[in-house]
Please model this.
Amino acid sequence: MSEGKTPPSMETLAAAIVLLLEKLVKQTDQIEAALQRIVQQNDDIHATLERTFAQGSQTNDLLQQILDSTNPPDKVLTSIKVIFKGVEPMPPIIPGPVVLTQVGQQVVAEIVGYDQFGALWTGPQPDWSFENDNEAAATLDQLTGIVTAVASGVANITGSVTTAEGLELTDTESVTVTIAEEVPVLSTIKVVFVPPGEGQGKKKTVKR
Model:
């Protein structure tokens, strides 16, 4: 220790240590506040990015909707229905259940299609085929689709189509045949001979 210099007292050392600690605490507080500001800024950045992403997603959805409206998806044949057209002077298309009441009465079976949106199919019509489960009630011409009443009963007509995409479509509609029974009428007579007495009581008309 140099001569002439008095060592600091304990009080002075204690005061210096307290002052140093106060500075450290103050600096620590400043560092913590800076860190909090950085964290807050990061939160703000994250929130801004999330809003930007959300707006971008909404914009993409809107652009996709506009694109879909200007470029609608291709229509495809997804369902079919068997219909029956009348033979003149009957209406062109027979609404509701088809009932034939006379032997030889005819209707024409056809197939209409619908796309995936439920609209009437206007595209190329694939080849179709028909099947009939009861020829005893009504016959079916496979080429023309003509159904002809034969006798009372129900004939189920099934139409089938294979789409360009390879989808098998079917529909079955019934044709009910109800032939009214003929009322008996006198159409012929025959002369017969009976023993005397058996024919008594019956009125006879004698022509002169």
User: Anything to note?
Assistant: The longest strand covers residues 77-86. Residues 8 and 14 are 10 Å apart (CA to CA).
